[in-house]
Amino acid sequence: MDDEEEGEEYLFKVVIIGDSAVGKSNLLSRYARNEFNTNSKATIGVEFQTQSMEIDGKEVKAQIWDTAGQERFRAVTSAYYRGAVGALIVYDISRSSTFDSVQRWLQELSTHSDTTVAKMLVGNKHDLEEIRAVSVEEGKSLAESEGLFFIETSALDSTNVRTAFEIVIKEIYNSVSRKIL
Ligand code: GDP
Ligand code: MG
Known about the structure:
The protein has helices at residues 3-6, 24-33, 78-81, 96-100, 102-112, 136-146, 161-180, and strands at residues 10-18, 47-55, 58-66, 84-92, 118-124, 149-152. The protein is α/β, with parallel strands linked by helices. Bound molecules: guanosine-5'-diphosphate (GDP) and magnesium ion (MG).
């Protein structure tokens, strides 16, 4: 490997989608800033955060987009999806309606993407075990049938949050590397 290659930089766009109040914004703030908010803020417009991680000694950056409230009106625009190579599709394990919506989100994602997207199905609010409405098996089996990675997370207590993002980013990096090789 020559020096030029080692200095190579990667920047990948990753989107977070899923129904309102499943914890999308908190997953991102937990990952990017280690913050959690109990109040859901209905921010207007789109926000993203850039996060770096090291893979194979290379700096890999992910520009992670948050819908910031557009999903309340089912009005996530095509610009939001444009160029995305990774996606976290989030539901709330305590609300089955949010799990039922996953198919619709997957459809919307595939309608708007013109490339292969590394996808992670995320069952968030793992801490709400007592009022769980979607079993781990249901999550796993949907993920298997749709070809998605699967993980349960808690933005509240941090369980698996970093792992959820990093698996997606590593998968994107690996598929890009496979293309180069
Ligand atoms: P978004 O609309 O999908 O962006 O959801 P938010 O991140 O705004 O979160 C919606 C609500 O769920 C807020 O009141 C959060 O405090 C709460 N929340 C988010 N993640 C978790 C979690 O992992 N566990 C629990 N118990 N609550 C969460
Ligand atoms: Mg939000």
